[in-house]
Write a structure and sequence with these properties.
The protein is built from 1 helix and 2 strands; from the N terminus they run E-E-H. With about 120 residues, it is mainly alpha-helical. The protein has one domain. A two-stranded antiparallel ribbon has the order 1-2. It is rod-shaped and about 145 Å long.
Length: about 120
């Protein structure tokens, strides 16, 4: 309660002063309440946002890992095909080498009697 001295030196309270004091107290309560609600809302928003941000980051990391795995799988499949092609070529070349060895052996067999007849006499 606000007590004031009037012009005559008496202590008295006026209705206007009381209403101003009550108004100030009510404003103070509203300000504190609003500030407290704002703080709580901000804190809750921060915590929820932090969890959401972490979840989104994890999701993005998982997607990136999936992309990398996909690239490696494609590369491995390409290499498997290339290795198969090279094995097929190797098998073809080995058959060709065997054929040439057989021809060489055959040619040597044909040439052996002729070379043995030609003796060099000194």
């Amino acid at each position: 309660m606000l007590i004031q001295r009037n012009l005559y030196g008496n202590n008295s309270t006026t209705n206007t002063d009381l209403s101003i004091e009550i108004f100030i107290k009510m404003d103070l309560v509203e300000i504190i309440t609003t500030g407290l609600i704002s703080f709580i809302t901000t804190a809750i928003g921060y915590v929820v946002g932090l969890k959401r941000n972490k979840a989104e980051t994890t999701k993005i990391e998982i997607e990136n890992v999936k992309e990398v795995i996909s690239v490696y799988v494609d590369t491995i499949n390409d290499l498997k095909i290339e290795v198969k092609d090279l094995k097929d070529k190797l098998a073809t070349y080995q058959k060709h080498i065997e054929k040439l060895e057989t021809e060489l052996y055959s040619f040597r067999q044909q040439m052996a009697p002729t070379t043995s007849r030609k003796r060099v006499v000194k």
